[in-house]
Design brief:
By secondary structure, this protein is mainly α. It is built from 71 helices and two strands. It is 64% helix and 0% strand.
Length: 1406
């Protein structure tokens, strides 16, 4: 195919290249572009390739295409280049903002828009740099199209310095429209801030920049906005509108998650430190925050004072919207409490205020700023002073509203309203007491409040009225009448007030029946802890009988199935019945209803579950939720400023679950009652306590996961002070007692850590908590809850002590010793050392100086904590070793013994061999060589023995507790025996029994006995008897040489038995004896000691004789004891003596055998042998023979005694009297009748021989005669009961013979008066109890009957007595004559009737 032939005419021929060809081509291209240029498209192209096209060709001084295009277009249109460029850039910005295609109410750019705008702003910066751009014109153009712009675009213009925001909003003439536009977009920004996570940071930065700009422009120090123009104020304080709309939204109510809620939340978020961090001066944010606080407090002040009085209980912290409380907290962060109170006062004095905001702000202030609580109290006091000084009603209103609002938050932050009202007006120092004018002012104010008052405030005013002088009493009575009338209108009765109703509570008045149920529960709780009818119940039964009878008793006497073992409710009902506080008819009806209640059990009860289980769980839900929120705040370090707010919410939830703490209002005067032996909680209280303790443990673990204890903030201390009020403290401590004492080994590691930390904080905060009624301070109390007697409890105690000590040291790494001792008790530290020594042999060696380990708290918080490693780590820690250098925490030898005695060997962690080795190490290697200043014995074995004896006595006598082990005591007694043997054989043997010092054992006994209470009352006697029984047990466990010392080697002298004789004569004779003889065991032990002394002597027979001769004069009861037990004692004595000394018994021992034979021969009818030795020894042998023979017909045998033996017969009568008293003091009634017959027969023999026996009833310890010996042979209680024995024989007296004796009347009156004194002192109670139990003894041993017979006998005998009998009767009557006035009158009358009565003197009996 041929190619077509095109004409070629008119074609331009290609020009050859040349030097000027390139310039011509550039000019042609430029002309072409200018003819076809579109500026908007050009800006788009320039934006896309701006990095390559934006520069001017500096080398050729050529203009950029954009500059040339703008100049050409401006010349064509006849406008300046700057105007054209501004309009072009504004048009491009509007185009970019509208390019998203999304709704027009957005304020943020998307990613594509943000990229385009960034390039456009670079173009604008180029134009601005080359003088082709005017800021002022640009601002004017932007204001014209402001409704088409997105807020982020405006912000980016400001950030990249194209035009500043102040230039933007100060340029237009229509400021109002600009403010409205900016306010609208700021609201949208707050609403959309959380819509997308990718835009959140940009939105927060935008809002922060805007706020900083507002604050800087509006709150500079030199800016006086009060004199500024309104337009300027509108320009610089655009935050006011935003805050106002937020407060308005809060007032109308917000739903969580709604757009309005997000807007308010994000706007309030600007009031924080980092939002204002770019301020040049710190005063600028303060002025901004103060201005905002003023705006909040004065926002729409439509509520009147009467509205505030009526509604303020709904404005407490817990009921205020969380967003508003968060705003308050943020405002408080910059302003100190003093500044806040000053600003409060200024606003209240100069503005009309919104009382809801003012009072809710007060609640937040006292909750979140503990240091402001004192300032609030002082402020209220100043307001009251000003009010009464000038009768300023505004100050009075403010003071009452603020005081009531603070009181709503509980007594932990402010006194309850009744307490505050009584403290302010209930004494002579009150503000109102200065004059009549102030009194009238006060009651006028209170009266004006009456129509608007809540019933509880009226009740508080009535029950705690102001103190008024008597002449102005009518003011008070008029007010009380008005208040009662108002209560009547409100259908609230003062008579129906609950016994424990909390007048400071913000709750509504409940029905009397419901209040009565609460009163019953509280009364039962108080009764459980005191065992007495509560005072409030007793007062109500007298002074508030309508409520008591109509409401309280029906609630208490609700029919139920009575438990087999009476519970607390049943015990309280029984106590009230015995006190005649329950009408008999009502009690009878209650018992009948209870008897039939079991037949009508509800099905739910039969199934073993409560009837309404849902109601039980429902109240705990909000409390658990509040605790979860608090835990989230603890786990988030950024939320440290909201802890107080969460705790206030927890406190409010606790009040809703348990009701208000009735005793908080009087916390300063009340004590928490704890029952440690049987800790008990109501089901609801235990659930709440478990919830709180679990929450604390979880909080601690969460906080410890990100910070050590010293950097966790004050959350734990605030938790303790907030939730541990009076009632909750009792529940918490009771639950701690249950867990630590009874469930410790089953607790998990996190529970151990949490409870240990809680105990530390409770101990540290004890001064701010109610007093606890236990015998120990708080730290020692918690230590006492840690048992360690078994292997399981020892390991738990070690874990708990390790956790508590490690937490305390970590919490206060640089704290003083006093700070640590406030958290840790010395007892806990000693327990830790004790268990560590027992369980780990590594701890028995002192830690090396090279050990530089850290605190083990982090180790304990790990999931798999190694407690052994942690305990040893703590032991080696330098801070802990320095703590142990303090004297208070030394584990002394005495401390170790006390703790070791509580170990139960059968359940011990150590085996028997390991325990023996440990005890030997502790005594021999650790404590014995240790200096006394460090708690050791200083190398003194005698000191070690003495302390061991003393501790054993203390633990065995006083403790008698479940933790004290008899086997443990026996093991240490074996150690004592070993050490005592070392003392006798070692170099200290010569000192242990030295006469000048005495044996160490008796010195311990003597010091302990001197410390015991004296007297003969039952408690003192039982205490002393129990002590002496343990003494005897220890003596029997030690070598008998303790009783009878070693003989002196230099000369034949008796071994020293002084200490043992002292113990027998002063103590064992009275409490550890069988009447006139010691018990068999101690008697045998003494004679073993005698043989031991003889074995060490060169003259055994002489030594034995010397010892027994000493007994005759110093301790005769030892010999009478040998006579009593001779049938069992003699074979052993003969066998030992024959095998050791190959000879007859010593003379004094033979004499004991002869005395025993003499007693037998007197009763056998054989020819009576002459009585050997002293008469009292033969009489004792005869007395024991009569007792063992068991027969009363012995007169014929006694009459065979030689006439020269009247003294023997007299002493035998004394022994028979002791036998009579002994039989009356023992439960063998038949023996008492037999003993009485024996006494009667011996008395008959004495009277037949005309032997005066009255001397036995006037014994004294004077030297010479039988007095000293007989008084050492009988127990002192028996001697004191001789008047009882005297008148028991009244029917056997030969009255005619007695009346002829001059001493009879004196003895009879003396015995009678002493018998009355014994009866009054209760010392005849044992005799009376025995006579009551025995039918045979009725009328015979009854002290009352005996006194009656004795009185009758004296009144009949007094007229018949000779004149000599009345000598010195006046002395008797002067001492005890008031015991029986009639007998005294008869004696005095008879004495006065005698003419020469003064010539006679009292007969000499001795």
């Amino acid at each position: 195919m041929c190619a077509p032939d095109f004409p070629t005419a008119g074609r331009v021929r290609r020009q050859p290249p040349g030097p000027g060809r390139e310039h011509e081509l550039r000019e042609s291209a430029t002309r072409l572009l200018r003819r076809h240029l579109n500026l908007k498209d050009l800006l788009v192209e320039v934006r896309i390739g701006w990095p390559q096209l934006r520069l001017i060709d500096a080398k050729r001084h050529a203009e950029s295409p954009l500059s040339s295009a703008l100049q050409d277009q401006a010349s064509k249109l006849g406008v300046p280049v700057a105007v054209l460029s501004i309009r072009t850039v504004v048009s491009s910005i509007v185009q970019i903002c509208a390019s998203s295609g999304e709704p027009s109410h957005k304020v943020l750019l998307n990613a594509e828009q943000r990229k385009k705008l960034s390039s456009l702003l670079e173009v604008a910066q180029y134009l601005l740099a080359h003088g082709m751009f005017s800021r002022l014109s640009f601002c004017q153009e932007l204001c014209e199209v402001q409704n088409s712009l997105l807020l982020e675009a405006i912000w980016r213009l400001h950030v990249q310095n194209i035009v500043s925001l102040p230039e933007l909003w100060e340029s237009p003439a229509d400021t109002q429209s600009t403010v409205a536009w900016l306010f609208r977009d700021l609201c949208l920004l707050c609403e959309q801030m959380d819509a997308s996570s990718q835009h959140t940071d940009i939105a927060q930065t935008m809002l922060s920049d805007f706020v900083q700009l507002f604050v800087l422009r509006g709150f500079q120090k030199n800016s006086d906005l009060r004199g500024a123009e309104p337009t300027h104020v509108a320009r610089v304080r655009k935050s006011d509108g935003e805050s106002g709309i937020a407060l308005e939204a809060l007032a109308t109510g917000l739903q969580d998650g709604s757009p309005a809620h997000r807007t308010v939340k994000n706007w309030f978020g600007v009031f924080c430190g980092h939002m204002c961090g770019g301020m040049i001066s710190a005063d600028v944010p303060k002025r901004f925050f103060s201005h905002t606080l003023t705006q909040v407090l004065t926002h729409k002040p439509v509520l009147r004072v009467s509205d505030a009085v009526r509604m303020q209980r709904e404005w407490s912290f817990a009921k205020t919207h969380p967003l508003l409380t968060s705003l308050y907290r943020r405002l408080f962060a910059i302003l100190c409490p003093e500044e806040l109170l000053g600003h409060f006062q200024e606003v209240l004095e100069t503005h009309e205020v919104n009382w809801q905001h003012v009072l809710s702000c007060v609640s937040t202030l006292v909750i979140c700023l503990p240091e402001a609580q004192r300032l609030i109290k002082d402020w209220v006091a100043r307001l009251l002073a000003r009010a009464f000084e000038s009768c300023d009603l505004d100050s009075m209103v403010t003071a009452f509203l603020v005081a009531r609002q603070a009181a709503l938050e509980g007594p932990s932050v402010f006194p309850s309203y009744p307490d505050w009202f009584q403290a302010s007006f209930g004494n002579t120092r009150g503000f109102h007491s200065s004059s009549k004018k102030t009194l009238v002012f006060l009651f006028k104010f209170l009266s004006d409040l009456v129509p608007f008052e809540a019933p509880r405030y009226l009740q508080a005013h009535i029950l705690h009225p102001p103190l008024v002088p008597s002449k102005y009493r009518s003011l008070l009575t008029d007010y009380i009448a008005l208040a009662k009338t108002r209560l009547s209108d409100l259908k609230v009765s003062m008579e129906n007030m609950g016994l424990y109703e909390d007048l400071s509570s913000a709750r509504d008045i409940i029905e009397p029946d419901s209040q009565a149920q609460q009163d019953v529960e509280k009364a039962i709780t108080v009764f459980e802890h005191t065992g007495k009818i509560p005072v409030a119940v007793m007062e109500a039964s007298i002074f508030r009988r309508p409520y008591y009878v109509s409401h309280f008793l029906p609630a208490l006497l609700t029919p139920r199935v009575l438990p087999r073992t009476p519970d607390s409710r049943a015990a309280l009902i029984e106590s009230l019945r015995r006190a005649d506080k329950i009408p008999p008819s009502l009690y009878s009806t209650y018992r009948q209803a209870c008897s039939t209640a079991g037949e009508k059990k509800p099905e739910s009860a039969a199934l073993g579950r409560p009837a309404d289980a849902g109601c039980v769980e429902e109240p705990l839900g909000p409390l658990a939720a509040a605790l979860r929120e608090f835990r989230a705040a603890v786990a988030d370090p950024a939320q440290g400023d909201v802890l107080s707010a969460h705790l206030a919410l927890v406190s409010e939830r606790l009040s809703s679950v348990l009701g208000p703490d009735e005793e908080d209002s009087s916390r300063g005067h009340s004590r928490v009652q704890l029952s440690l032996r049987a800790p008990h909680l109501e089901p609801r209280e235990q659930e709440v306590a478990d919830l709180l303790l679990t929450s604390f443990c979880q909080n601690l673990m969460a906080a410890s996961s990100f910070a050590p204890a010293d950097r966790q903030g004050p959350w734990a201390a605030r938790f303790v002070s907030t939730v541990c009020g009076h009632r909750l403290l009792r529940a918490t401590l009771t639950r701690l007692c249950q867990l630590l004492r009874h469930q410790g080994p089953s607790l998990s590691a996190s529970h151990v850590l949490g409870l240990a930390a809680l105990v530390v904080h409770l101990s540290e905060s004890r001064s701010a908590l109610p007093d606890v009624h236990v015998a120990l301070p708080a730290p020692e109390f918690f230590s006492s809850l840690l048992p360690f007697g078994t292997a399981e409890t020892s390991l738990f105690c070690l874990k708990f002590c390790t956790a508590a000590i490690a937490y305390s040291l970590c919490k206060s790494p640089s704290g003083s010793q006093d700070t640590l001792f406030s958290c840790l008790s010395p007892a806990l530290l000693k327990k830790f050392q004790f268990i560590l020594f027992r369980l780990f042999s590594e701890a028995r060696e002192p830690p090396s100086q090279e050990d530089a380990v850290g605190l083990p708290w982090r180790l304990l918080c790990l999931p798999s904590a190694d407690w052994q490693r942690a305990a040893l780590c703590l032991w080696k820690q330098r801070a802990f070793q320095e703590l142990l250098e303090e004297k208070e925490v030394h584990l002394t030898y005495r401390d170790w013994l006390q703790l070791e005695l509580e170990i139960q060997p059968e359940l011990d962690f150590l085996s028997d061999t390991e325990r023996w080795d440990f005890q030997q190490w502790a005594i021999r290697e650790h404590f014995l060589p240790a200096p006394a200043a460090a708690g050791g014995c200083g190398g003194e074995l005698r000191t070690a023995c003495s302390v061991l004896v003393d501790v054993t006595l203390c633990l065995h006598i006083w403790a008698q507790s479940p933790g004290t082990s008899d086997e443990g005591t026996n093991a240490l007694v074996l150690v004592l025996q070993e050490m005592a043997a070392d003392l006798e054989q070692g170099p200290a043997a010569s000192q242990s029994g030295c006469p000048s010092q005495g044996h160490f054992l008796f010195r311990v006994f003597r010091s302990r006995l001197q410390a015991l209470a004296g007297g003969w009352d039952v408690a003192a006697r039982l205490q002393r008897q129990r002590e002496l029984l343990v003494y005897k047990r220890i003596l029997l466990g030690l070598p008998p040489s303790v009783l009878v010392g070693s003989p002196q080697a230099s000369q034949p002298a008796a071994p020293d038995c002084t200490e043992f004789f002292w113990l027998v004569n002063s103590e064992l004779r009275n409490f550890c004896s069988h009447g006139t003889a010691l018990t068999h065991d101690i008697t045998v032990h003494f004679f073993r000691g005698l043989f031991n002394a003889c074995s060490q002597s060169r003259s055994p027979a002489l030594t034995a004789d010397l010892i027994l001769s000493a007994c005759q004069t110093e301790c005769p009861i030892v010999l009478t004891s040998a006579l009593l037990w001779w049938p069992r004692l003699e074979p052993d004595l003969r066998s030992r003596w024959r095998s050791c000394f190959q000879g007859p018994l010593p003379q004094e021992l033979q004499r004991l055998g002869e005395a025993r034979q003499f007693g037998k021969s007197c009763l056998s009818g054989d020819s009576a042998r002459p009585p050997p030795g002293p008469a009292w020894l033969s009489a004792a042998a005869l007395h024991f023979a009569i007792q063992q023979a068991g027969k009363g017909g012995i007169r014929s045998q006694l009459e065979k005694l030689e006439r020269q033996r009247e003294e023997l017969l007299l002493v035998l009568f004394f022994f028979s009297l002791m036998g009579l008293l002994s039989s009356h003091l023992t439960p063998h009634a038949a023996d008492s009748l037999e003993a009485l017959d024996i006494c009667a027969e011996i008395l008959g023999c004495l009277e037949k021989r005309r032997v005066s026996w009255l001397v036995l009833f006037q014994l004294t310890g004077a030297e010479g005669g039988l007095g000293p010996v007989l008084l050492r042979l009988a127990p002192d209680p028996y001697i004191r009961l001789l008047p009882f024995a005297f008148y028991s024989l009244l029917s056997y007296f030969d009255e005619d013979a007695l009346l002829r004796e001059d001493a009879f009347l004196h003895v009879a009156v003396d015995m009678y008066l002493k018998l009355i004194c014994l009866f009054v002192a209760g010392e005849t109670s044992a005799v009376s109890a025995l006579a009551t139990r025995s039918r045979d003894l009725q009328g015979q041993g009854d002290p009352v009957g005996l006194i009656t017979k004795a009185r009758h006998f004296l009144l009949q005998s007094i007229p018949r007595c000779p004149q000599k009998s009345f000598s010195n009767v006046a002395e008797l009557l002067a001492a005890r004559g008031d015991c029986d006035p009639e007998v005294s009158a008869a004696l005095l009358s008879r004495q006065q009737a005698l003419p020469d009565a003064d010539l006679y003197q009292e007969p000499q009996l001795f």
